[in-house]
Amino acid sequence: MNLLLPAQVYGERITQIDVRVAKVLRLGSTRTVAGVDLYNVFNTSDATTFLETFDYATHGATYLQPTTIVSPRFARINVTVSF
After folding, report:
1. Is there a contact between 50 and 64 (Cβ–Cβ < 8 Å)?
2. pTM for this structure?
3. What single string gives the DSSP state of each residue in the chain?
């Protein structure tokens, strides 16, 4: 039995900010692009999915337990060389 609607638990919107910074370097006929990608910059760890079913056998021990959260914060460094 579902007791709450999903919007009542975690709100209407979840915000995640990703940032990319890159620099193009030219040396003769060689073109190099160096960059850094940052994902989930402000590290929101909001839950996006909850167990919404109240289980009488476990007396609700898992009720509203998060099952999915937003991806963690991480960085990726990349270099591309064209010649």
Report:
1. yes
2. 0.60
3. -B-S-HHHHH-S------EEEEEEEEETTEEEEEEEEEESTT----EEEE--BPPTTTTTTTTT-EEEEPPPPEEEEEEEEE-
Mean pLDDT for each 10-residue chunk of the chain (83 residues)? 59 77 95 95 77 72 79 92 94
- Shortest CA distance to 42 belongs to which of 12, 73, 21, 13? 73
**How far apart (Å, rounded) are the C-alpha atoms in residues 52 and 7?**
12
Distance of CA 78 to the CA centre of its chain: 20
Query: How far apart are the C-alpha atoms of 49 and 11, rounded to whole Å?
Result: 12
